[in-house]
Write a structure and sequence with these properties.
The chain is an all-alpha fold. Helices cover 46% and strands 0% of the residues.
Length: 81
């Protein structure tokens, strides 16, 4: 992530969505997984690129999974528990 475009920027739902869409397990398995797994992944990816994590990133990840762009994660009863 040498050219991470979100350096110095707090994690937002749109940034979290970009990381979630790159999450391999999302594409390789149809098995359920917990939202906390996505929170950890998105926060670690963002921070390792130089992004800022202000407070709990759960809200940004939750909003990212409820918005368009991740359609198979939109419904509460679907994969995220």
């Amino acid at each position: 992530m040498d050219q991470y475009i979100y350096k110095g920027i707090p994690l937002t739902p749109s940034i979290a969505r970009e990381h979630i869409l790159k999450y391999e397990r999302l594409h390789l398995s149809s098995a359920p997984f917990k939202r906390s797994e996505l929170v950890t992944y998105a926060a670690e990816q963002h921070q390792s690129g130089g992004g800022i994590i202000k407070g709990d990133p759960t809200g940004s990840v939750k909003k990212a999974t409820l918005s368009d762009g991740i359609p198979h994660l939109k419904k509460k009863e679907d994969q995220i528990q």
